[in-house]
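Budget justification, computational time. The allocation requested in the original proposal was used primarily to generate structure tokens for proteins on the priority list. As evidence of use, we reproduce two of the resulting records. The first is shown immediately below.
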Amino acid sequence: MAASRVALLGHPVAHSLSPRMQNLAFEAAGIDWEYEARDVDDVVTAVAELQIEGFAGANITIPYKQSVFDICDHVTNVAERAGAVNTFWVQDGELIGDNTDVAGFDFAARELMLSARADMPKRVALVGAGGAAAAVAAAIRDWDDTELVIWSRDPQRARTLAQRFARARAEPDLSSAVRGADLVVNATPVGMSDDELPVPMNALPKKCPVLDLVYRRGETAWVRAARDAGHAASDGLPMLVEQAARSFRRWLGVEPNREVMWGALE
């Protein structure tokens, strides 16, 4: 296969493990491709530059997933449901957008509930209302009879997101949003660069599993604190690997070696 390039666009991206993970996966598959991260202020201009430079596609991260959805020529049904794009490729000069975060979150949540020896949740509290939160909501839509309660520092964004999904509602008070939850998910950047907790420990229901979509070396403070308090807890690495594997498959039409991807994170 001819050499080609893909990229990660976002702000910030310096912390991202995606370039190492994808480049090792390309190497393991014998594919002469290269993945790079670009910290950008204007994602529309950045996407246009990738097209001019002949990139095959890209991943999109905070805070541009919804902006790129708006500029794609076509999107998959999953991306349409989420209203956000985290993966695109160029086909006949057009941008085709997908959202592999949806499957990535579904995988991570099921793995967490399995490790907690718990049934799939009947009520999920979701902190955040951006592109990552939209992917969470899109995944939960397909869970039987699961209620989704959304809280955001921007109440209007929470209401707007909740209105798009059945069995979803916005809650203006964080403590009320997490009360009675069987799973609490952080879909904000809180804790990415410091030890701030997205949800206070005393607000979490007893033994409720927590899933932090943020990842960092040594896990986030929230994951560590939750585990110390007796909660099953996971950071965003399982979701990162699964969404990356599905992006790889979208670009190349073949499955990557997930063991290699996991090894890249160590």
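The second record produced under the same allocation is shown here.
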Amino acid sequence: MTAGAAVKKGLFFLLVAAIVLYAVFPFYYAILSSLKSGVELFRVDYFPLSWNFDNYVGVFRDNPFATNIWNSVLVAFSTVALSLFLGLTAAYALARIRFRGRGFLLFTILGVSMFPQVAVLSGMFQLIRSLGLYNHLPALVLSYMIFTLPFTVWVLTTFMRDLPKELEEAAILDGASSWRILTRVFMPLMWPALVTTGLLAFIAAWNEFLFALTFTLTNDVRTVPVGIALMTGSSSHEIPWGNLMAASVIVTLPLVALVLIFQRRIVSGLTAGAVKG
């Protein structure tokens, strides 16, 4: 290895280390802060000097945080299930069935996801109230579909277009229906895309705050972002910083675990179709 190549390699690893530090350090410091109490919270430490889990106990003891987590799990999984089901069937129609206006429809679906949440907030509020869903978890599932479904349809349609037509033609010759082709032929090949879109939809639903704050009223239907926001007091002296850090760590760990578990499929799903043979 030449000196120039060694320098380039060293700079590359230095850049990677800087990016990792920039991305990971806030979460690492949140973990350190969650293990402190009292005046220790305002002391800057970069290594854990003590292991105090009182903040984690206090989160569940002083707040309905377990209920908030359960609500977030129900809403996120319901949103992912509906988004994948509707997105998969829509992607099959958009990718495999030729009809007039197909391209315009696909761009319209993608365009819907570009609207800011505030722009559709009042309309969604009126719709949810008219359906009698206000302060109910289905209201959150319905509203979250606005930004999870367009992305899901777009990604799955792009992925399905790259699948060989010969597979579909062979299944048709064998007498398979469209539903059987979708579930038995295409779905086994689309797991990387399904995992990627499903995980991104889960993260979006898990972290969403504005709709959750607007469409819920009582603690028994609030999700974790709203639950954490309502932990704050009326002044800075009343804010339970330790509990907030502990709650932030608790709600972040499931996302980190999901990414680590499905990282291979996520990479496969994101790079699928990037290289043509």
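A brief technical remark on that second record: The domain at 65-271 is CATH 1.10.3720.10 (MetI-like fold).
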